[in-house]
Amino acid sequence: MKFNIKSSALSGRKAHIWQRISAIYLLFYAPFLAIVITQLPDSVSLKLLAYQLNTLPFSTLFEVASLVAVLLVLVHAWVGVRDIIIDYVPRKKVNLWLTLYHSVLILLLLNSIMIAFNLFGYA
Amino acid sequence: MKFIISRYNPESDQTPFDQTFELDDALLSADSMLLDALHLLREQDPSIAYRSSCQEGVCGSDGMNVNGKNRLSCVTSLSELGQTITLRPLPGLPIIKDLIIDMTLFYKQYKAVKPYLESIPLDLEHEHLQTPAERAKLDGAYECIMCGCCSTSCPSFWWNPDQFAGPAALLAAKRFVVDSRDIKHIDRLKELDSATTTFRCRHIQNCTDACPKGLNPSRAIQELKSIMVKDL
After folding, report:
1. Cβ–Cβ contact B32 with A under 8 A
2. Phi, psi of B95, rounded to the nearest 5 degrees
């Protein structure tokens, strides 16, 4: 039984490239995120956090960078977890698990976008 | 010297089992190879089954798992193995009998990468020349003897031997992808561009560790991926 992933737009070389692009981006985003966190007060609620983030001098840059980071985390995870599913899930159930996994990623993506809009006040 | 050998006869056994043999050290010399010991053990028990042909590390037929590592018995010195030696068939492929495995899937993957030169029609009156630099690109890729030690030590090949090409086949693929005389460079790369054919390799480098010829299939696969990223 063949997996139905050869026809996917992100199989093989393209997935390889995206995984590396996302890894390099997150390598630079992580220290940026750490710097932003150090600028925030010790304890804030979600609403205050959004306010605090908006008062930072580089808030727009941080918002855009964070949205891109969320998307690239999902891309990176898509490739990595897909590989694990192909390797470890019994052959007959691979397509089912890949479908479930894709559904979860789409839900996560939608949820992340909603949180981002709420957090940064664009909703 | 003690030998623990995995035995399996499909006509009489449900599953493989271990059988222990003792071999008098006096029968062996300091430079005895594992294959020499197997020949002596087969005098004790003629039913022990294993492959061997050239007996000098060229044909690659006597690959087996020795103390947990895939090796060629004919070029493995007994002196480096200790007093208890555990022999099993190469892992991941069906066992035909004892230490003999069915390599059909391995050869199928090798055949699938078209391991032959596809060139312009040759002028038989002249040599098909390469520069020394072009020829040097083939070093480390053409010496494979197809013993299967690399592919059968690769977890990705264990999981999906019918879909992942495996290190031996990908090493062969790289050899023809980088050959300056081959005219199907792009076609080869397109055929290898799959999540299960080439990109299933996670570079854990068991293949490089196992290769009895000292080749580096893991690096070859990495180079193959880089070529695919650049040229496709």
Report:
1. no
2. -90, 130
Question: Does residue B88 share a domain with residue B69?
Answer: yes
CB atoms within 10 A of CB B41: 18
Number of domain units in chain B: 2
**From the list B156, B193, B194, which residue is nearest A87 (CB)?**
B156
- Residue B75 sits in the same domain as residue B153: no
Verify that B119 and B6 share a domain, yes or no: no
Q: Are B221 and B174 within 8 A, CB to CB?
A: yes
Between the alpha carbon of residue B232 and those of residues A24, A70, B190, B225, the distances in Å are 22, 28, 7, 10
The boundaries of the domain holding residue B62 are 2-101
How much is the pLDDT for B80? 92
- Report the residue from A12, A17, A87 with minimal CB separation from B159: A87
- Chain B residue numbers with beta carbons less than 8 Å from the beta carbon of A88 are 159
Average pLDDT per 10 consecutive residues for chain B, totaling 232 residues: 96 96 93 96 96 95 97 96 96 97 96 93 84 96 96 93 94 96 94 89 95 97 94 88
So what's the pLDDT on residue A123? 43
